[in-house]
Specification:
With 482 residues, the protein is of the alpha/beta class. Helix content is 39%, strand content 22%. The chain is globular and about 80 Å long. The structure holds nicotinamide-adenine-dinucleotide. Pfam families: Aldedh.
Length: 482
């Protein structure tokens, strides 16, 4: 890939939304060197000054939110209200980090009978932030905000499938920061590889797919560069026998699968209902879906689901549904279409609920990352938990029950980084709750104090009591006592 990336609107594929230049390896090198040159000065500033700069950076973006939201909707196919929501949430997160980071990053000093101990939180240096297309603003800010607060400088490489709003956001943020503290460059695997493999990069923060993650982690390992990896999930939804199937929770459950046309890492991707409530669930779910799902142009009023990101994604998801039907399943269309949208003009895929499929069908066993979700029934709690925990992914899960204690007890049995109770997906997130996967869904955390601490290394200064002035002394090769 060289020259410029041209991004067309997935809802109207003939509409060019914008272009960005591709960074060749020489450009990547120059950007990283500038970030490295700026880093020590940035790290020397007091954390209070760094977070003040982050607040000013948030203020610099705020007036541009309407422009950014429309740009994001047109390049990604996400509905306009979701884009506004993502951008607002990203600024909320940035300001939350500005408030919280000084406490998380503060030195810890101990001076007692055992000696004098100073724990310092030092930055890694230059952080390479590599992000996917599906929530590109918040996923970039989740790395930028804590990394900058901790005294790192940051180079962001967004996905070529949604580079425009990230480019504009990063430039606005950077306008309030010292030169080269925050930069953006563009490209796909070649630019990404040049960035990850650069010897002056101190840490790689990656969000994306498992196959890319393995390449990224291997390239980083070649330089012993630490990584955090936030990867995909195949989140199960566990509806217990007493789950509330009334319209309000059902609407929430439908959106948990179909927001962003299902292209969300923590979307509800497998629905498990008690066998005795299967038919009742299908009726309640279809009714709720018909109310809340409207497929159409992301800029049109009343639309809640846009196209998928590319023609390849549309073909892959359609193939999953066809395979499910070939294996004995039924594909039940849900929701409605916006009458004002020409659905042939973009990569639109009608939302479906798939029933009657075996557990090893691809639509169940793999992350669909699109607008289809399988419904499965279970016998008892042990059967449910075993099937929910099957597979190599462990990002999110949810338990739905009228009895919160019971929901928490089941949640404790799940192999997932984040278990939601009576909700799923973004409605269940919390700024203070660390988010990330177990098993092959990655490692490292975003959000919460842990998400800030990811960007600092604890370094120690220690004067053991025995060797301080007036100390008792110890043998020259003594081990420490407790
Ligand atoms: P992707 O893996 O195709 O791309 C992610 C990023 O990696 C892009 O910026 C891409 O250009 C870059 N890249 C590609 N090859 C590279 C290389 N060799 N070296 C360095 N960078 C390289 O992912 P995608 O399709 O954009 O996103 C979808 C995936 O992301 C899904 O699996 C989804 O579940 C996951 N995801 C996870 C989270 C989370 O927080 N856990 C959030 C959103 C998305």
């Amino acid at each position: 890939m060289s020259g410029r990336i041209a991004r067309y609107n997935p809802a109207r594929v003939y509409e060019l939304v914008g272009t960005v230049p591709v960074a060749d390896p020489t450009r990547v090198d120059a950007v990283v060197r500038a970030a490295d040159a700026a880093q020590r000065g940035w790290a020397r500033t007091d954390v209070a000054d760094r977070v003040a700069a982050l607040r000013a950076a948030a203020d610099a973006v705020e007036p541009d939110l309407p422009v950014l939201a429309e740009l994001l909707a047109r390049e990604s196919g996400k509905v306009l209200a979701d884009c506004r929501g993502e951008l607002g949430f990203a600024l909320t997160f940035l300001r939350w980090v500005a408030d919280r980071a000084p406490r998380v990053l503060a030195d810890t000093a101990l001076d007692d009978a055992a000696g004098r101990l100073l724990l310092r939180r030092r930055p890694y240096g230059v952080v390479a932030a590599i992000t996917p297309w599906n929530a590109p603003i918040i996923l970039s800010l989740l790395k930028i905000a804590p990394a900058l607060a901790a005294g790192n400088t940051v180079v962001v490489k967004p996905s070529p499938l949604a580079p425009l709003a990230v480019d504009r956001t990063v430039r606005l943020l950077a306008s309030a920061l010292p030169a080269a503290v925050l930069q953006v460059l563009h490209g796909d695997a070649e630019a990404g590889a040049a960035l990850v493999g650069h010897p002056l990069v101190g840490k790689v923060a990656f969000t994306g797919g498992a196959a890319t993650a393995r390449v990224v982690a291997a390239a980083a390992a070649a330089q012993t560069t630490p990584t955090t990896l936030e990867l995909g999930g195949n989140d199960p939804v566990l509806l217990l026998a007493d789950a509330d199937l009334s319209p309000e929770p059902m609407r929430r459950l439908v959106m948990a699968s179909f927001a962003t046309s299902g292209q969300v890492c923590m979307a509800a991707k497998r629905l498990y209902v008690p066998a005795a409530r299967h038919d009742e669930f299908v009726a309640a779910y279809r009714q709720a879906a018909d109310e809340v799902l409207c497929l159409g142009d992301p800029l049109a009023a009343g639309v809640s689901m846009g196209p998928v990101v590319t023609a390849e994604a549309a073909a892959r998801i359609t193939g999953l549904v066809e395979d499910a039907v070939a294996r004995g399943g039924r594909a039940l269309p849900v929701g409605r279409a916006d009458p004002g949208t020409d659905l042939r003009a973009g990569h639109f895929v009608a939302p479906t609920l798939v029933t009657g499929v075996p557990e090893d069908a691809a639509v169940v066993a793999e992350e669909q990352f699109g607008p289809t979700v399988p419904l499965l029934s279970y016998r008892d709690e042990d059967d449910l938990v075993a099937r929910a925990n099957a597979g190599e992914l462990g990002l999110g899960a949810s338990v739905w029950s009228a009895d919160e204690e019971r929901a928490f007890a089941v949640a404790r049995r799940l192999e997932a980084g984040f278990v939601f109770v009576n909700t799923h997906n973004r409605t269940g997130m919390s700024l203070r709750a660390p988010f990330g996967g177990v098993k092959r869904s990655g490692y490292g955390r975003e959000y919460g104090d842990e998400g800030i601490a990811e960007y600092a290394q604890t370094c120690v200064v220690h004067a053991p009591a025995a060797f301080r002035a007036g100390g008792a002394g110890a043998a020259a090769n003594a081990y420490p006592s407790a």
